Each structure stands twice: as structure tokens, then as C-alpha cells.
Amino acid sequence: MNENQLSKRLERVGELIPSGSRLADIGSDHAYLPVALMLQGKIEFAVAGEVVKGPYDSAEKQVRKNGLSEKITVRLADGMEAVTAEDHITAVSICGMGGILIRDILEKGRVTEHLSGQEVLILQPNVGEPMLRSWLMTQSYTIIAEDILEENQKIYEIICAEKKASPANYTEEELTFGPLLLQKKGIVFTKKWQRELKQRRNVVEQLKKSKADQQQKIAALEQEIKKIEEVLKGEY
Ligand code: SAM
């Protein structure tokens, strides 16, 4: 992967970023995403935010190497603190982290008002998608696009959200499976949930062999298994 050849994951994230955006890419590492989008002429301006010095230096180097220092500002900062009101950010991407960390970055940004609430959010959690969707819902965001893809045997979900006048109210199933993914389903979606099903069945088998009382855990897992089976059978 480099600025000219993004990973399939970041390429799909890039496709969901609106053209002409003023982008804040938080946790930018090598700044591959903002640099690639700027080279494509897709975005107008970007902030690449990084909290760790090593990845921050890599991002700086990458931006300089591509002659984009005027258009991409690299900042060493925690989460949304990389952004100022003068940046007039219209889109925020946070990718390649756990869903809980992404949620915490957004929540801190909301409290400190570094996140105005007017930005389009393009989020790619590696795990913990339901918690992230739940935060989005409680903050009156509507999920406007979702994608799922497989790369190097890993399955990734991308969630794109925006505040709307009449925010959505998602069911437990929609928070777990993704409201739009649940409608689209598809091969990768099915593969992900078949894997999740197998994993849960294995855990139940192990728990049943345990000498301690695992009834509550087993019941909760069996409930999840039932839900996944229903979704895979097309009952949702
Ligand atoms: N976004 C890139 C991607 O998707 O390929 C890089 C993902 S990398 C696994 C996660 C990056 O997020 C790391 O470079 C890490 O230092 C950075 N990071 C983690 N927490 C952060 C925070 N609170 N603020 C800014 N950057 C953060």
C-alpha cells in the first residue's frame, strides 16, 4: 500500500468520502488516505491527525514527498483536537481502530466541540461496530451508507453517518448487523456472520464442558446464535 495504491479497505473508505470535502483523517498513520484522495483531486483540503510521534512523522514525510504541504496539514494531537474551527472540516474519517476507540474519539470531540456535528462521518471500525452504531443513534446521526469487504482474510465494515432533521431509530438487529447491510446482505456479509455463528457455537460447546455454572453466558450466546441464524435464513 502507498499513496498511489491504497489497500482495498482504504479505497472503499475513499469512495464514501464526498467529492470536494475538507477532510479530517484522525489516526492517519502514513496519511495514505488524504494524500491519495488529494492526488485524485477528490478533496479540497485535509488535516491528518496523529497522536503518536512515529506515525505523525511518517504522515509529515508522506505529505511533503508528494508536495502537498499547502493542502494537507499534519498535526500531532489526540483525536479531534487535531481540528480547529478555521479548518472548516466537512468530513471526518476514522479508520483501522476498534469501534470503542472510534466512539470515544467522537464523544470527546463532541464534548470539546472539536466535532461540530455537521460533518459527514466515514468510520471503519475493526471490531465493535454495534457500540459505534449505538453511539451514532444516541447522537441523532443517521447511517447513510454502509459497506462490507474482505481483504487478506479479514472482513471490514464501513459506516457512513450524518445528522439529519429526523434521526433514525434503529432496532437491536440493525445496530448489530448494520441497518443498510441487513438490507443488502451479500457474500461477504454472509461469510462474516457464518464465521461469527461458528465462533459462538464453539464457545457454547466449551462452556458446556465447564464445571462452573455458565448457564447465563450460554443463554445469552444461544440468543445471539438464534438471531444470527434468523438473519442468515433471510428472516430479517
Ligand atoms: N487510519 C489508518 C488506516 O486505516 O490504515 C491507520 C490505522 S492505524 C491501525 C491506527 C492509528 O490511529 C495509529 O497510527 C494510532 O497511533 C492512531 N491513533 C490511535 N488513537 C488515536 C487518537 N486518539 N488520536 C489520533 N490518532 C490515534
TrEMBL record:
It comes from the Bacteria. Pfam families: TrmK (PF04816). InterPro entries: SAM-dependent_MTases_sf, TrmK. Keywords: Coiled coil. Residues 197-231 form a coiled coil. One of its GO terms (molecular function) is tRNA (adenine(22)-N1)-methyltransferase activity. This is tRNA (Adenine22-N1)-methyltransferase. It comes from Candidatus Enterococcus clewellii. The lineage of its organism: Bacteria, Bacillati, Bacillota, Bacilli, Lactobacillales.
